[in-house]
Amino acid sequence: MNNEAIISPEITGNWIDHLPEAALLVDAARDLILSANSAMGRMIGTDRQSLTGKPCTHLFTDQRPQLIAFTEETLFRSHGWSRDFFLQHRDGHTVELEISSSRVGEAESQNILLLLRDRRQLRTLRERHDANHYHRGGLLEWRRVEELFKDMERENQLILHAVGEGIYGVDAEGRGTFANPAAERMLGWRIDELMGRVLHRVVHHSHADGSLYPLKDCPIYAAFRDASVKRVGEDWFWRKDGSGFPVEYTSTPILDNGHPVGAVVVFRDISARQEAQNELHKALEEVETLKRRLEMENAYLQEELSAEYHFHEIFGQSDAIKAIVRRIGMVAPTDANVLITGESGTGKELIARAIHQSSSRRDRPLIRVNCAAIPKDLFESEFFGHIKGAFTGAVSDRVGRFELADGGTLFLDEVGEIPLELQGKLLRVLQDQQFERVGENRTRAVDVRVIAATNRDLKAEVQQKTFREDLYFRLNVFPIESVPLRRRLEDIPILAQEFLNRACQKFNRPTLALRERDVETLKAYHWPGNVRELENVIERQVITADGRLDLDLPGPDSTARINTTTPPARHYSGELMTEQELRELEKQNLTRALTMSSGRVFGEDGAAAMLGIKPTTLTSRLKKLKIEPREFQVRPE
After folding, report:
1. Top-level class of domain 162-273
2. Which of 145, 248, 356, 504 is the most buried (most CB within 10 A)?
3. How far is Cα 178 from Cα 167, in angstroms, rounded to an integer?
């Protein structure tokens, strides 16, 4: 390093070498020794040229924080004094120092002159200096202030020793004058070690995060600077071992003839209180989270209870039903994902509920999600939840269905309706059991078993690239087919009788008998709506029955769909109908129901109630047929 290039000769010259004490001229802003005299070199056993241009903190490698605080104090007050520092001599022995400091140059200058003295070698000189000071009259004033603090300590000795709060006194220079045993215990310093030291540099030099605490900002100093009591509710003190702890304290000025001569600081360790507050805050957050979760679960259960389906068991004696029951028994005790396939109305949800009720998760909820009824832009919020302000309309935090199902089972009904671009996000949660709420960076872990159901051919959709293959295999760990009613005709008598008994009780009608001819009529029908359609037919018969059932269904060769709510646009002519004709009939029937309900799907007067199906089922069918209910709403003129 070229020292001449960075050291201004106007600043240094050769005057520093004529000082009788070891001296350093330091640029505090750059941590740079601008000049050192020969006495300084002799103090540490080197030559002064080797010091020039080096960082000052290299001389005090183990006392860097204290040196920074000391230089900051010097720049603030234009001078400083300390006996807290030491240096290592070249031969290895430690030189205990007494340092005087002063700012050099203009008001904005960052240059500091340090005068360093060997305390052991100059003890005699110090005593002589003190004696001269006493002779000049300073002794009396200094002794008077010292006695003031001693009298205060003597008069309050019992209190100082009895109280649990830490108490210490400082003079107008911020140097320790007394401390009680509680302060010793909390700070880790002995009383004799604190006396005469600038306590800000000992216990208050830095904030909790380690950043420097400027002397000019210290409320303790402000107390006797402003002659006012300073109360601080939360701050940080440092112990002798370098550890810290949170405190609250009061700094009260001590006045002598109206002039502040120091302050008494009373402080308390608030670690336990902060920990209790943090625990309380954490507990309140958990309570709030549980409250929101319970509210969501309650809302979900209310929604489930109001839906138009029954929590009945799976009825039947056919081989198909027995096979389904066996597969339920095999997979229920495990946590394997299940994919239930089958036509609408075959009871896929009943199979899902049977699996959940037979599993170890039965004490946690089964959360159902109708994937077809979720708008594309709300998919993430519905599944994973969101935080307040995550998007327009997010006025509060919302718990998603995955979080509601934590520890339980998530039933994804009509999973084939999930848009392709959103399937990857679902796959990630199924793989990692982790997710983030919309608008939140925090990752949440869940323990969820997934049961999916669909009436679509997902394997074919994988081939057509409209359904992700990896998601399909993640869902299809254990497949179960829900067999259509026409393939288990032997179960129709059992199901019909069960529905008949329930309908009579539900509508408060006399008990009706199911005759042999009724059974044959029911078996002869194709049942495109499966078990759900059978239940609806029986309920309508109970409502219209006059003492007995009067079933009038199409014959055994017909594939026409029965419609007892609204006459179809065209009547069965005895000929087979194509699939296109059947879809057209269904579309006409649905549009007529929407016209009669003025576009309403839900509610007692809604189209779903007129048709005798669940609103979610109607919503799915309308979406499949690309029918918009709002087009049938009556607009005010």
Report:
1. alpha beta
2. 356
3. 8
